[in-house]
Design brief:
171 residues, mainly beta, four-stranded antiparallel sheet, 1 helix
Length: 171
């Protein structure tokens, strides 16, 4: 067992045995393997110090939905053979994790490197929920805003649309 503050756990839509978890100063990926769940921590650096990652999702940085059919089976088979001894799923280079922090930031973390690729000051309060579609990233926050972002987040990205609510948006 591990002493950890876990706020969210999500399985990957890209690999049936891969999952992520997030919490205080923590974003981890792992896989279910022979009755165990070995994980590896993302290196959040200054973006993770004293911060709670409240939500995170798997995404394709290319902005495409997960492959299906024969292509998905081919990729899974290739990944499994390459991962026979690995503790953490080695995702295709285009996979990433999109996370929301208690500091109001959106973090895009490379699933292979587990390093922060993009950090965006998205909200003035904690980001409580993150959702990713083929074309957009949607965030909600305790600042009372729901914001819709372009799928290809970069350091200077601005919200495409934002809606102000009379109270905090919890998720």
């Amino acid at each position: 067992s591990a002493d950890a503050d876990v706020r969210r756990v999500r399985f990957s839509p890209f690999a049936a045995d891969a999952f992520l978890s997030c919490g205080f100063e923590s974003l981890r990926v792992g896989r279910v393997r022979r009755g165990h769940t070995p994980t590896k921590a993302a290196c959040l650096g200054r973006f993770g110090r004293g911060v709670t990652i409240l939500d995170a999702v798997w995404a394709s940085s290319a902005g495409v939905v997960p492959p299906s059919g024969a292509e998905l089976r081919r990729r899974k088979s290739a990944a499994r053979s390459a991962l026979a001894t690995a503790a953490v799923p080695q995702a295709a280079p285009e996979l990433c994790l999109v996370a929301g922090s208690s500091a109001g930031a959106i973090l895009v973390v490379g699933a292979r490197t587990l390093t922060v690729l993009v950090a965006l000051g998205a909200h003035t309060a904690a980001v409580t929920s993150v959702s990713v579609t083929k074309g957009y990233v949607c965030t909600s926050s305790l600042d009372g805003f729901i914001k819709v972002w372009p799928r290809t987040l970069t350091e200077g990205s601005s919200a495409l649309v934002e809606a102000r609510y009379g109270a905090s948006v919890a998720g």
